[in-house]
Amino acid sequence: MEAAGNTMVVDAATGEIIEGEIVEEPTIQALVSTAPRQGITTLFGTDDPNKIIASATIKADALAKVIESRELYTNIQGKKHVRIEGWQLLGSLLGVFPSVSSRPLFDTEGLKVGWEATCEARTMEGVLVGSADSQCTTDEKRWDTAPDYAVRSMAQTRATSKALRLALGFVMSLAGFDTTPAEEMDGVHHDEAPKKADEASLRQKKALVEEWKKQGVAEVDMMARTQELVGEPKVEGKRFSKGQVGSALKHLRDLNAAAAVDDPGKVEHPEGDAFIASVEPGSDPKAIVTDLTWERLEAVYGNEAAIWAAFEERWGSPEGAITEAAALVLIEARKPGAGS
Questions:
Q1: How many angstroms separate the CA atoms of 128 and 98, rounded?
Q2: Domain-located, residue 98
Q3: How confident is the model over 50-70, as a mean pLDDT?
Q4: What residues are paired with 128 via a beta bridge?
Q5: Residue 221 lies in a domain
Q6: C-beta contacts of 282-288 below 8 A and 24+ residues apart
Q7: Is pTM, for the whole model, over 0.85?
Q8: Are residues 110 and 218 located together in one domain of the fold?
Q9: pLDDT: is 245 or 122 the higher one?
Q10: Which of 44, 138, 238, 240 is deepest in the core (most CB within 10 A)?
Q11: Domain final position from 155, 185, 215
């Protein structure tokens, strides 16, 4: 019998090969290449460090918007820990997908006590980029009475988020979140949802800007000047509350109303005048001024006598009660750089 490239002699009676060339078949292992992958070896389509960082940052920014808007995180001890849905989204953005297997856990007496899961994070080409094992047992307070399927599911969820974290945690960090998945924080005290302070409305903010403009204050300085009036912003993100802006508006409107009087030297005091208000005989002439403003007056002028002297010099002898507007004008007049 003759074969291409080889000559074999076969015994006609038994079919055994008497003479010929033996060729070994390749094993399965030999068919699988163990050589290092050639070309690009990152998830970002490039080996250039600058391009990798730029690409990771773009993906992190997009990821952060979705996680924040959909609240795919849990506040734990002041940090935002992303839940499994956020980690799966990150994996999808980078073409990394989890493959999970699980097995029951038994104690030394053979009683089932929970589940253990293994997750492998792989690319679409099957390249392994991360793996992790995780457990969920009935020894945990939260899971001691949970149904078996729920315990198994949590073991798989923990393994999945952990495997994705090991491979992609740096991108989650770039997005501004803690890299420990929320599912790994079971048993740790969860913060209540942060209470949102009553932030000033857009209309209030615009009105405040206009009042500051009347004072000749540049927009870049308005934040600091408002803070001088009402203190540190009370709303998260350094924003003022409705109450704070309302207080600042009242202060500035009074001040601007006083400055708008055509002839401040002319003292007229019908009830409601900008500087003098009629009061009952014997009343405290500073009764209409708020305590806070009067304290500021005293801090500027030193004592009550000096305050009245400044008032008389500007508007004449008061025949009623000094108003908030007048007090604010006197305060501004003594600030460094103020005109006489």
A1: 10
A2: yes
A3: 90
A4: 122
A5: yes
A6: 283/321, 284/321, 285/318, 285/320, 285/321, 285/322, 286/321, 286/322, 287/321, 288/321, 288/322, 288/323, 288/324
A7: no
A8: no
A9: 122
A10: 240
A11: 185
Mean pLDDT along residues 290-309:
76
| Percent of the chain at pLDDT exceeding 70 | 69
Q: Kindly state the tokens that stand for 286.
A: 């500073």
Least confident of 2-16, 109-123, 129-143: 2-16
Residues forming a β-bridge with 73: 82
Residue 14: the pLDDT is 54
Q: Which residues of 223-261 are buried (b: 16+ CB within 10 A; e: fewer)?
A: eeebeeebeebbeeeeebbeebbbbbbebbbbbbbbeeb
Q: Are residues 256 and 275 in the same domain?
A: no
Say yes or no: 61 and 122 in one domain: yes
| 255/269 same-domain check | no
Whether the CB-CB separation of 149 and 112 falls below 8 Å is answered with no
Q: How many domains does the chain have?
A: 3
The distance from CA 221 to its chain's CA centroid, rounded to whole angstroms, is 26
Whether residue 35 is contained in a domain is answered as no
